[in-house]
């Protein structure tokens, strides 16, 4: 820190803008948290420790975020390896379609999932046409996971593909000369390039899923819990 201030190229005015932004961010979060905690002024720490419902909500939030992030990274890594190694017809089109999830509104994606996996969705109608007495359940943990995977698998796949592209061609040639294939190639060549970007990607997806409000609110309960959802799903899905 001392060497930074004594550096000849150090200009204090260059840090004024960044310091101001950090200050306002800290101020915003501080005032928001103080407002939240001031609402429950009579809510003590002992009451929090004895509130089983709140414990279940917190555990469910962490659990669904962890599962969503883990499955997104694992499945996304498989997609990324397939896009990198396997040439197939329509690959550029599929990659462009997957990129749409980065700008697709969450509510629009939920409507699409309800249209497919809802009680009167395409999958349910297909089961009825085949004579199978089974209806998919989109509400609850499985619906939240499906929605989160829909949004986050393309992100993990893109990160995996970029990490594999960073492997030098010399390493591929050396691995071919030494007959390093399969699991050994993945362990010795790919993992060193994948572990650095995939861990931050896992943390990022976990944070996105943990703070996902629209998806959890829409798919976390069900028509039997929310009357307006029941009316909406019966009319449209």
TrEMBL record:
One of its GO terms (cellular component) is plasma membrane. GO terms for biological process: transmembrane transport. The keyword Cell cycle does not apply. Its main location: membrane. The chain crosses the membrane at residues 21-45, 57-85, 97-118, 138-157, 197-219. Residues 58-237 form the ABC transmembrane type-1 domain. SUPFAM superfamilies: MetI-like. Keywords: Cell membrane, Membrane, Transmembrane, Transmembrane helix, Transport. It is a multi-pass membrane protein. It is found in: Cell membrane. The keyword Endoplasmic reticulum does not apply. It comes from the Bacteria. InterPro entries: MetI-like, MetI-like_sf. Belongs to the binding-protein-dependent transport system permease family. This is Thiamine transport system permease ThiP. It comes from Rodentibacter pneumotropicus.
